[in-house]
Design goal:
284 residues, alpha/beta, Chemotaxis Receptor Methyltransferase Cher, domain 1, Rossmann fold, 2 domains, 7-stranded mixed β-sheet, 3-stranded antiparallel β-sheet, 11 helices, 18% strand
């Protein structure tokens, strides 16, 4: 007998609820906000790997083995990304958004938040583009890039900043030559880019305090994150992000993601199909 996603659905729903509530109590992550189909599929894969046939057995195992909670969190989260994912979006950022932000905020530190940063590829891609633009400017500018995720292993990976070639297939050769050092089959990001990004643990379903590094952002990147949450959670997340974004600041979503209807009046997409939205009522 093999375990499938469908077989999870025949188990009592309270068992699934107990597993997710246990993760919430121990790690403070509310996976109830994720899409049910995503949770069921990934739990099925985890149970198959352990050779277990039902959630009840897994729940007992989870409570007995302190290390399994980390494996569960890893199984339920996503860390897949690569540098300059969706090049058209980064072209828009590099040619329009970043130059506009730099010109507008010359006297203030430029604050950028990459929410759900996985292994750091997106945050570092933004840093590379900003470095390129600033190298052509006569004035200096302080830049704060904060990148957050709930996967601590992914954050550790990001801070090491050593990547395989398959993470860089959309990076331009000039960027590879200038900002990476090749080490055998790996590419190490140079310190001049690594130092531009600060990584921190954060659960995007919770509201960060509006102080310190979590305040008044000029740009928030939250790409390919919302698709893993149900609609109510998406609306909650966007509300939080919008509250931490300066007026006329930018919010960037993933290619398959949409802005909830109740926010459409307060944001406008600056270039069609980029999912780059500017905060401020249409016409402002």
């Amino acid at each position: 007998m093999t375990l499938s996603e469908n077989s999870l659905r025949v188990h009592p729903p309270d068992t699934l609820h107990e597993v997710l509530e246990y993760a919430k109590d121990v790690r403070g992550i509310d996976f109830n906000a994720y899409r049910a189909s995503t949770i069921e599929r990934r739990l099925a894969l985890r149970l198959r790997k352990l050779g277990m046939q039902d959630l009840a057995s897994y729940y007992r195992f989870l409570k007995k083995d302190p290390e399994e909670i980390d494996a569960l969190v890893d199984a339920l989260t996503v860390t897949v990304s690569h540098f300059f994912r969706d090049p058209f979006v980064f072209e828009a950022l590099g040619n329009f958004v970043f130059p506009e932000l730099i010109n507008t905020h010359k006297k203030d530190p430029l604050r950028i938040w990459c929410a759900g940063c996985a292994r750091g590829e997106e945050a570092y891609s933004a840093a590379i583009l900003l470095k390129e633009i600033l190298s052509r400017e006569t004035d200096s500018l302080d830049i704060l890039i904060v990148a957050t995720d709930i996967d601590r292993d992914a954050l550790d990976y990001a801070e090491k900043a050593v990547y395989r070639a398959d993470s860089l297939f959309e990076a331009k050769k000039g960027h590879l030559d200038r900002y990476f050092t090749k080490e055998a089959d790996l590419f190490r990001l140079k310190d001049e880019i690594r130092s531009m990004v600060t990584f921190a643990y954060h659960d995007i379903t919770t509201k960060p305090p509006k102080k310190g590094v979590f305040s008044d952002y000029h740009l928030v990147l939250c790409r390919n994150v919302l698709i893993y949450f149900n609609r109510a959670a998406q609306e909650h997340i966007i509300s939080n992000l919008a509250g931490l974004l300066q007026n006329r600041g930018y919010l960037v979503l993933g290619e398959a993601e949409t802005l909830p209807q109740q926010f459409s009046g307060g944001f406008g997409e600056i270039i069609p199909r980029t999912k780059i939205f500017r905060k401020g009522r249409c016409g402002e």
